[in-house]
Amino acid sequence: MRLKSLLINSLLSSFSIYIPLLAFSYYEYNFMSRFGVEKRFQDNNLGQRISAINSGYKPVFFPDKLISNKKIPPIYPIGSLPLTPTYYCNEGYGLITYETDRFGLRNSDAKWNTVNLQSNIFVIGDSFAHGACVPESSTISYILGTSTKQNTLNLATASNGPYEYQAILKSLIVPFIKNSPNSNKVIIIFYDNDNKPYQHKKAELLKSASFILEPAFEEGVKPTDNYKTNITKFIKENYPQTPEGMISKVKEKQKIPFKHSSFYYISTLHPIRLRVGLVNFQPSTSPTNNPTNSPSEDSISLLSEVCQSKCEPIVVYIPNSNYWRPNSDSSNYKKELKEISKKMGIKFIDGEDVIDKSNRKDYSPKGGHLSIGGYKKLADLIIKEI
Questions:
Q1: Dist. CA 333–CA 335, nearest whole Å
Q2: pLDDT over 50 at 344, yes or no
Q3: How far apart are CA 345 and CA 281, in angstroms?
Q4: Which of 76, 196, 172 is nearest to 124 (CA)?
């Protein structure tokens, strides 16, 4: 009898503690934390993506995701499908759409027609350099080009990392710089999550990365037939291309595992545990298992080697938002990038000089990328430094 009474009292005590915490967790998740904001917003975006597909647009086929496919691409990809109407993302400014250039990148294709005849700025990076998720006129490359009056090429794609940066340098920048009579600038924009560990699959594919540039004076430069054929064929053979297939894929991606569901986050009091520091949202990705240098250091080293006297190398760091993407290791990674750049004699531009990690206005209304104002601040800083 005493044991039964003890059990009942224990359960009542536990529930009396848990229920208020559960209510607070529900409120925190839905109205205060970034989890609920992102989840509701992405749910609302589903219709926009489906509408874009029905209008003839295709998703961005990220190089990082192509390499993650069970079947390895025959060549290291640097962009999405060439010359294709493409939809990208929405973090509060509407669904971003554009047509890819001849390399599958986010540029007006005409920019490649005169690339041999003038000085250029090449921008390498991930989603931030790609322009997530803002109109073309608010991207870093567009602002740089408009302000400097130099032909500025956006070589970035979302989800890129140090291995993709090296692939772009090896396959596109090296052959171009080698034959360019003009002065050029090459900028690699690093973000907080580029602190990647050694990745064997990418490292092996990178070894086989070869020139993909075919000089053609009348048409500027263009990708080799080998590159264009292989990448186009790989994407079309491994990813749905019909509207029905793409819509099915979009809906499938909308489904999330139970451990990432709203119910799981709320019931396990995740928002509360996160607030009191019992959850590390973004664990350290320090490259402890890399047998040589970190992939980031390899990228900067290659940038230095590629440019030497032929172009001006620049490294830029973009800080993470403390609200959208908190990470206690970010300052260490920035310090590492700065020290490596200094050792290589490369100009380092610290985005934290103008971007406040704790200021929500520097980041987009519904996601962790920069806001229109944030991109403008960063681009202006780069212009000032170069």
A1: 5
A2: yes
A3: 34
A4: 172
Q: How many whole angstroms separate alpha carbon 38 and alpha carbon 363?
A: 13
3-state secondary structure of 87: strand
Q: How far is the C-alpha of 352 from the C-alpha of 89, rounded, in Å?
A: 25
Helix (H) or strand (E) holding 186: strand 184-191
Nearest CA-CA partner of 281 in 245, 311, 322 = 322
User: Residue range 79-92: average pLDDT?
Assistant: 97
Does domain 33-385 sit in CATH 3.20.20.80? no
**pLDDT of 283 strictly over 80:** no
Q: Averaged over 170-196, what is the pLDDT?
A: 93
DSSP one-letter string for 197-240: PP-HHHHHHHHT----EEE-GGG-EEE-HHHHHHHHHHHHHHS-
Q: Cα(125)–Cα(168) distance, rounded to whole angstroms? A: 10
Within 13 A of 277's CA, how many CA atoms are on the CB side?
1
Q: How far is CA 9 from the centre of its chain?
A: 52
CA 203, 207, 314, 106 torsion: positive or negative? negative
pTM: 0.86
- Give rounded-to-5 percent helix, strand, coil for the chain: 55, 10, 35
